[in-house]
Write a structure and sequence with these properties.
It is a multi-pass membrane protein. The chain is mainly alpha-helical. 78% of the residues lie in helices and 0% in strands. Helix 4 runs parallel beside helix 6.
């Protein structure tokens, strides 16, 4: 793969910074970061893009997870089983990622962008307070199934995983948005780590780009987590929707051949 220009590298770093911030606040940073990698590194294979995205995201979720845990103190009876099954699911998904052809990669990302973008747009009131819908072992079982399913998706593709965790924890389990965000960050950290366990030995991580983006993602994640805990996520919704909309236009144009 040819070396990217300094302009491309700078834009990827900016995308990683925005992704870290968005991911820490509302989830879905991969909806910013992975499409940016697809656009900026057109000759890279899908598995290289996924692996490099995971490296950068792991840096951001590491710092945002610690910040959320220290400030929100989520219940370990839920997030530990969630993390464990998410880790297992992500490893299985990462193994499957080697079989995903490039020609189906962008259409899948486009569909995820549209679905999550519309959900965030039309559900601004979701997760205002915690009203748990399950209790006891049933609650834990639902959390574990959630972790396994979304973990597999994250290992195989990845964009929108944080949002999927938040949406499921809020919509299915009944957590408030802030509590769901804290648990989502911890689960997403586990899925990123699991995917790297598979990708790193295969030599598919683009370390130079990945580490640069990782530093930016870490900075964005730290800032986003602190802002989310202090002020909530309402103010960032429009920013998230605008960024996702821009990528829908860009990736959609590629899929439909508008830009060719």
């Amino acid at each position: 793969m040819p070396e990217p220009s300094l302009t491309v590298v700078a834009l990827l770093v900016l995308a990683a910074l925005a992704a870290g911030f968005v991911d820490a606040v509302v989830g879905g940073g991969g909806l910013v970061q992975l499409p940016a990698l697809v656009i900026g590194l057109p000759t890279a294979s899908p598995v290289q893009l996924l692996a490099t995205n995971k490296l950068a995201s792991f840096c951001g979720t590491s710092v945002s997870s610690v910040t959320y845990y220290r400030r929100v103190r989520p219940d370990p009876k839920t997030f530990l089983p969630l993390m464990a099954l998410a880790f297992v699911g992500s490893m299985a998904g990462a193994a499957a990622a080697f079989w995903i052809p490039r020609d189906v990669f962008e259409p899948i990302i486009l569909v995820v962008l549209v679905v999550v973008g519309l959900y965030v747009l039309f559900k601004p009131e979701l997760g205002e307070r915690t009203e748990l819908r399950f209790s006891g072992h049933r609650h834990t079982a639902v959390a574990m199934v959630t972790g396994l399913a979304i973990g597999f998706y994250d290992g195989a593709l990845g964009p929108g995983t944080g949002s999927f965790f938040v949406i499921t924890l809020v919509g299915l389990l009944g957590y408030s948005f802030l509590e769901a965000s804290a648990k989502a960050r911890l689960a997403n950290w586990a899925t990123n780590l699991a995917a790297l366990v598979v990708f790193v030995p295969q030599g598919v991580v683009l370390w130079g780009i990945g580490l640069l983006m990782g530093v930016a993602n870490l900075a964005g994640g730290y800032l986003g987590a602190r802002v989310a805990v202090a002020r909530g996520a309402g103010f960032v919704r429009m920013f998230f929707i605008v960024v996702v909309s821009a990528f829908i236009v860009r990736i959609g144009g590629d899929v439909l051949g508008v830009w060719s």
